[in-house]
Design brief:
Maltoporin, Chain A, single chain, 22-stranded antiparallel β-barrel, globular, 5-stranded mixed sheet, Ferric Hydroxamate Uptake Protein, Chain A, domain 1
């Protein structure tokens, strides 16, 4: 069966943490009469409980922030966990669906197959798998990342440089993979929906050996769907296999590999012009697409890992992981640039290009964690080191006919002769290496007061070039400190405060094609966390402030290209409040609600990043209908306040010379669901999205001189029939 049980530390018995360098000071803070702790609680199982087994909206311990198994109230930062139950209830089949329903996160879909994410006003670039990962190379996700492989998604908002190496103040997104089960489990889910959507996912798990010492799991799926967008079609194939083996009673070896393809016909590269040359706003049909009928964008992700966990004496555990991630992209794309005339619709020009990208990332991470005694109290320590290598190779081959005039979009049908892609070439070939050591400790100062401190030392070495610009840079022993305090007011409520420094290397280049210096700054957070209903409901209220220097801000594009250059902005400040409630209110009602207010200012105190909504709210709930066994009804609402973006100046009409401002009014998107267990092992779930058919622009995020966007999905529906054994 499984390894020997490992100790789990409850708040009432063990409260720990801390950086070795601060050990003497914290020890002194405990006073002269320390209290002895109760005996350790020992769980019956090793590790965290999979959310898929709980059918709950809340999860147990999280390891994203500290590599310690900490409960909701034990983490001095705002954390959101999207469980398997939530994903299944609302058909959240890709990461965009998950993150747009996460407190404080906005999904910036600037194209159909390239997505950026922001939190607290900053780009999210820290993505992890089971707590291991590295920053996204271009701060975005290409293609659709499916959720079929994941048990849950953990999002830690604010800086997390202690465990990620990069101290981005946005958030860290941790994808927790499904793991094998000792008992045999199997499921098949078949989905049909709007725009000829077809999807099937199978999941089989159980013991491979007679003794149960070797367990395996396979998840495989296929999806093919059209779109409300003209000519667009996406096809996905997914496979994930994982094996666990109990080498001894105290040694667990896990091996896994996942591959996903996301192949798209007629994708958007860029999007729709948002204004006419006279400055007035455009208003196209939602189906309008700028793509050609020959364009495509194929993305493949390979994800492999080997993990070895060893239980040690005294409640200690050592974990070593080797992780490889490869993203391959090849495409032939068609971009339309320019500003159309309001009367004629003319003014758009062609920009065909062929683009290939290959990013290979290796990460080796090893750490040990466990309790230790000091001053008659028990604390917990994490010591670790990591090494990573990321190689990026891409190439752009420009097509003939760049600048050719195009017909108005209301006459455009994608019929454009495919050109030869021999009109110039550019590309990148660079390698980023990072070596880090880290330590964190969790200290039980009193029965009610816990301190967490830590320190990470990072060595960075970057070599190569990107589109003619050097990527050469080197940083030695960059320090990323962390400190947090948690005070238990009583058994149900805790207040916390945390401080994190920020260090984030940047890939953006300035007008001279020199790489910008790293971002630096500080992140403060103060909050209240509570538990209700016997820990079935969790709440968080967080106040945050981030002060950053040297933040990349798009300034323009290089002449004759669509490549952006940036300038460094000093004094960018983000501050606000977040509130969240999640859990099982009763045996029949499950709820998730989140609200965010964020104010972003530049060094002069003026508003910045106006494309990020000041107010953001999410609400989803389900209700098991009494008297009708197996029937569950639910709804989901996503609302955001107005966003704007300055777009330059009008060139024609009575408003010539005046600043153009694109506005997207506040809006709400309502989704409904109904689920029914119509027979033993069988379930049918109906999801109806955007039931009010709200029309809105997906994002106003701007790149260089780009002023484009496209509309979100109109009303649509899907039906999933599943069999579970």
């Amino acid at each position: 069966m499984s390894l020997n049980p490992e100790p789990r530390f409850r708040r009432k018995t063990l409260i720990t943490a801390m950086m070795c360098a601060t050990l003497p000071g914290l020890a002194a803070a405990q006073g002269s009469e320390p209290k002895a702790l109760e005996a350790l609680d020992v769980t019956a199982t090793r590790g965290q409980v999979a959310s898929e087994t709980t059918e709950s909206y809340i999860s147990g311990a999280s390891t994203t922030s500290m590599k310690m198994e900490l409960s909701h109230r034990e983490v001095p930062q705002a954390v959101t966990v999207i469980t398997r139950e939530q994903m299944d209830d609302f058909a959240q089949n890709d990461i965009n669906d998950v993150l747009e329903g996460t407190t404080g996160v906005t999904v910036e879909s600037v194209e159909t197959d390239r997505t950026y994410y922001t939190s607290r006003g900053f780009d999210i670039n820290n993505f992890q798998y089971d707590g291991v990962g590295m920053p996204a190379v271009y701060d975005n996700v290409q293609g659709e990342l499916d959720t079929a492989f994941f048990d849950r998604v953990e999002v830690v908002r604010g800086a997390n440089g202690l465990m990620t190496g990069s101290g981005s103040p946005a958030a860290t997104v941790n994808f927790i993979r499904k793991r094998p089960t000792a008992d045999t489990n199997a499921s098949v889910a078949v989905t049909g929906g709007s725009w000829d959507k077809k999807r099937i996912v199978g999941d089989v798990s159980g013991a491979v050996s007679e003794s149960g010492a070797v367990r395996g799991r396979v998840v495989a799926g296929y999806e093919d769907k059209g779109s409300y967008l003209d000519r667009y079609n996406n096809e996905k194939q997914m496979f994930y296999g994982v094996l666990e083996a109990d080498l001894t009673d105290t040694t667990l070896l896990t091996l896994g590999h996942a591959v996903q393809t996301s192949d798209t016909d007629s994708p958007l590269w860029g999007a729709l012009p948002l204004f006419y040359s006279d400055g007035s706003a455009t208003d196209f049909a939602r189906s309008t697409s700028t793509a050609s009928d020959w364009s495509y964008w194929d993305n493949t992700q390979h994800n492999s890992f080997v993990e070895l966990r060893q239980e040690l004496a005294g409640g200690w555990r050592a974990t070593g992981t080797v992780f490889r991630l490869e993203n391959e992209s090849e495409s032939e794309l068609f971009y339309q640039y320019g500003t159309p005339d309001r009367q004629t619709g003319e003014g758009l020009k062609a920009y065909p290009s062929q683009y290939d990208l290959d990013v290979e990332q290796w990460v080796v991470d090893a750490y040990a964690t466990g309790p230790f005694q000091l001053a008659d109290r028990t604390h917990e320590l994490v010591l670790g080191a990591s090494w990573s290598r990321s190689e990026t190779v891409d190439e752009s081959r420009y097509g003939r006919g760049i600048g050719n005039p195009l017909p108005p979009l209301n006459e455009w049908d994608g019929n454009y002769p495919k050109p030869a892609f021999d009109n110039g070439v550019g590309g990148s070939d660079w390698t980023d290496r990072e070596t880090s050591t880290y330590a964190a400790a969790r200290w039980s100062l009193t029965d009610q007061l816990t301190a967490i401190t830590g320190l990470r030392l990072t060595w960075l070495d970057n070599k190569g070039e990107s589109y003619g610009a050097t990527k050469e840079s080197s940083y030695d022993a960059v320090k990323t400190p962390y400190a947090g305090l948690i005070y238990d007011i009583n058994d149900d409520h805790s207040v916390y405060a945390s401080y994190t420094e920020i260090f984030t290397p940047q890939t953006e280049v300035d007008i001279n094609r020199d790489r910008l210096d790293p971002i630096d700054g500080v992140n403060y957070e103060l909050g209240l966390k509570s538990e209700f209903q016997n820990d079935r409901v969790n709440t968080t209220i967080a106040l945050f402030q981030t002060e950053q220097k040297n933040v990349a801000e798009a300034e323009g594009v290089f002449s004759g290209t669509n490549d952006s250059y940036y300038t460094a902005v000093d004094g960018l400040t983000s501050q606000g409040v977040e509130a969240e409630i999640v859990g099982d209110l009763t045996d029949r009602i499950q709820l998730f609600a989140g609200y965010t207010y964020v104010d972003i200012e530049d060094k002069d105190g003026k508003g910045a990043k106006s494309f990020v909504p000041e107010h953001l709210a999410q609400l989803r709930a389900t209700w098991k209908v009494p008297g009708v066994e197996g029937l569950k009804l639910g709804g989901k609402v996503r609302w955001q306040s107005e966003i704007t973006q300055e777009q330059g100046v009008a060139t024609t009409g009575p408003n010539a010379g005046e600043t153009i401002v694109t506005e997207q009014d506040s809006y709400a998107v309502l989704d409904l669901m109904a689920s029914y267990d119509f027979a033993r092992h069988w379930n049918a779930t109906l999801n109806v999205n955007n039931v009010t058919d709200e029309k809105y622009i997906e994002s106003l995020k701007k790149f260089g001189a780009s002023a484009q966007g496209f509309y979100g999905e109109p009303a649509n529906a899907s039906l999933t029939v599943s069999w579970v054994y």
